[in-house]
Amino acid sequence: MFDVTRYAIAAESIVDAGRFLYQRGWSPATSSNYSARIDDEHIAITVSGRHKGQLGAGDVMVVDLSGQPVQSNCRSSAETRLHTVLYELFPDVGAVLHTHSVKATVLSRLLEPGRALELEGYELQKAFSGVQTHESVLSVPVFDNTQDIDALARETKAWFAEHPEQPGYLIRGHGLYTWGSTMADCLRHVEAFEFLFECELETMRVRP
């Protein structure tokens, strides 16, 4: 079982994140899913299909790290395993956010298949944990969109086991996944990625 107080804290952080991300236009309609760790075996995660700008405590449920509901008849997102593999892989991860912004979606469609997005020379790269200088390359993998979530979960888990320093990835035509030790870290990563995505798209526009 899980600690209900820790669940309440995790759920509140998810509700607050939803309001912020929806207001910024990064989680339109009922898209996106968010989660926060409760303990070594459980996470709190948004119930499928809920409006992210209007979340309440009843819109957050608990699943175990295999993605199965715990003490709930609700259904989490079909992409729940994309969250849980990150918690399995990285014990220090405290929150995972999946957003559907216009810039993440468009940029992921412009990159050639098999090519990662390489961010280099931006001061804001230092917003990511462990990055000390803009004189580095942040390589963001782009995975093809698929309805086979179990296969995608295995693919992302294997990739990040080999590249543990990376803070996020894109799914082509779909959106962004990023994570952090805390919800605040994770939200900072979303903001940094969105700024960098806009810089890349603007660079493409003025220098095609």
Structure explained in plain terms:
This protein has 208 residues and is an alpha+beta fold. Helices cover 37% and strands 19% of the residues. The chain has five helices and nine strands. The chain has a seven-stranded mixed β-sheet, with helices on both faces. It has a two-stranded antiparallel sheet with strand order 5-6. Helix 4 (149-162) links the parallel strand 7 and strand 8 (168-171).
Q: Layout of helices and strands, plus pairs?
A:
Layout: H1 4-23, E1 33-37, E2 42-46, E3 60-64, H2 80-89, E4 95-99, H3 102-110, E5 117-120, E6 137-140, E7 142-143, H4 149-162, E8 168-171, E9 175-180, H5 183-206
Parallel strand pairs: 7-8
Antiparallel strand pairs: 1-2, 1-4, 2-3, 4-9, 5-6, 8-9
Helix pairs in contact: 2-4
Quick overview:
The chain has 208 residues and is α+β, with helices and mostly antiparallel strands.
Strand order of the largest sheet: 3-2-1-4-9-8-7
- Strand content bin: 15-25%
Number of helices: 5
Mean pLDDT: 94
Specify the biggest β-sheet: 7 strands, mixed
Note the overall shape: globular
Helix content: 25-40%
